[in-house]
Design brief:
kinase activity, transferase, Rossmann fold, 8-stranded parallel β-sheet, alpha/beta, 2 domains, single chain, 443 residues, kinase, 11 helices, AB_hydrolase_fold, two-stranded parallel ribbon, 11% strand
């Protein structure tokens, strides 16, 4: 398998030198199939390189005779929050993991202090250069003596930060808005920060210790401050989710169109794979494809996708106006199957992710689930699509062109520390087999 790379900036503009190099390589080494894989959040260059090397090796084991496969690792600016452990993404795997959340075990870790470290602040400024002043204000408030007045000021500062850096790209589950639901004008600091503090507790984080000045048992302000830092994470992830859509629609989709239209080499069968927000990159790439039939995209596989499970829905179950998801109709742009691999052990998506988007604490569409409207595709699978359980390598899955198949991968995607859980536990032969067999690379 031949390995290449392609990079995009935050607006989705491709690195032209890398595109020229990729095209030259495709001309020199024509391939039958091109796998384009996008990383998600928290991936710097070393982590992305490690991810792609390992997945290229996993996939190679399942490629049958007669297939010449190129593997393109997509780079886009998403690296932040270095204190969140990402299992097996380190170039020296398992070297820094602090625990594992498996099927029958519960792991608790202590929350770090509420103040931003200098490195965290610098990372955020690098990722969101338009929000420097607002980030400085938030950092000062997180480090200050805790009070109700400062908590209210912090939520207002987060609103100003969001407005300074926002990229509008919704999944369709809410009206078009430059703000996530957590920042709506009716929300209070106690409501938002308290919800995030409770989410930390649910995901296995002890918010009563681990630093943070006065934080301790019964100290509600201390708990609120740790919830505030987690809310900042949620806000930055929400913005990163939107950025992923822009990279896909404005960058990757048009690039695929140019590759398919290039007459200097045989058009390869293109397969898209994305992890976390990278799943949103490759999904929204479908909106940026130029018209053409059949589509050059022959399969799409989403691994723990960090975007709405309703994005592909033709009719939203919670909208009386029969509004559709942002990607409704896009299955027609895949000349093959779209597969969604999800896990119940992914607490980043099942607990933390919905909080950034929700507009109300009570959703009438989900009587038993107040966050029904805001669930991620990597947590419960695509809405109203058939679901099977992950099985061993060699399993024949019922893939169908233009159709979604959910694969509950909880049996293998199960390891990782709080608060993210198994979100990044994606290095498994069973998952590589799904990608390879959906792409018809095995025979």
């Amino acid at each position: 398998m031949i390995n290449w790379r392609i990079s995009f900036d935050a607006q989705g503009d491709v690195d032209r030198a890398e595109e020229d190099q990729l095209v030259a390589q495709l001309r020199e080494h024509p391939v039958t199939d091109l796998v384009m894989f996008s990383h998600g959040w928290n991936n710097d260059e070393a982590a992305a390189a490690s991810l792609y090397e390992r997945w290229s090796d996993l996939l190679s084991a399942h490629v049958g005779a007669g297939h010449e496969v190129g593997f393109v690792g997509i780079r886009w600016p998403s690296q932040l929050w270095r204190d969140v452990p990402i299992p097996d993404f380190d170039p020296t795997p398992r070297g820094t993991a602090t625990g594992a959340a498996g099927l029958d075990e519960t792991v608790t870790v202590a929350a770090d202090g509420p103040a931003l470290t200098a490195q965290q602040l610098d990372d955020l400024k690098t990722l969101f250069p338009g929000g420097d002043a607002e980030l400085d204000e938030i950092a000062d408030l997180l480090a200050a003596e805790q009070s109700q007045v400062r908590a209210d000021e912090m939520l207002d500062a987060m609103r100003r930060f969001n407005d300074a850096v926002t990229v509008e790209s919704t999944d369709g589950e809410a009206p078009e808005s430059g703000r996530p639901g957590m920042l709506e004008s009716g929300k209070t600091a106690n409501e938002v920060f308290g919800a995030y503090a409770n989410a930390l507790v649910v995901s296995g984080v002890d918010v009563t210790g681990g630093g943070g000045g006065r934080a301790g048992l019964g100290d509600q302000l201390g708990k609120l401050w740790k919830g505030a830092k987690e809310a900042l994470r949620g806000l930055s992830y929400w913005q990163m989710k939107n950025r992923a859509g822009a990279v896909g629609a404005s960058g990757l989709g048009p690039l695929i169109g140019r590759i398919a239209a290039n007459g200097d080499f045989p058009t390869p069968r293109i397969h898209l794979v994305g992890h976390s927000f990278g799943a949103r990159v490759v999904s929204f790439a479908l909106t940026g494809l130029p018209p053409g039939d059949p589509s050059p995209v022959k399969s799409v596989t989403l691994l723990e996708g960090a975007f709405s499970r309703f994005a592909f829905a033709d009719v939203l179950p919670f909208d009386s106006t029969s509004t559709s998801g942002a990607l409704a109709g896009m299955l027609a742009r895949v000349d093959g199957p779209l597969t969604v691999c999800f896990s119940s052990h992914d607490t980043a998506l099942s607990v933390s992710y919905p909080l950034a988007s929700f507009a109300s604490g009570d959703d009438s569409a989900g009587v038993s689930d107040p966050l029904f409207r805001w669930r991620a595709i990597g947590s419960l699978g695509a809405y109203d699509a058939p679901t099977l359980f992950v099985d061993r390598v060699g399993t024949s899955y019922p893939f169908a062109p233009g159709a979604i198949l959910n694969v509950d991968s909880s049996a293998v995607v199960k390891t990782g520390s709080p608060p993210s859980g198994a979100h990044s536990d994606i290095f498994h032969p069973e998952l590589a087999w799904i990608v390879a067999s959906a792409a018809r690379l095995t025979g």
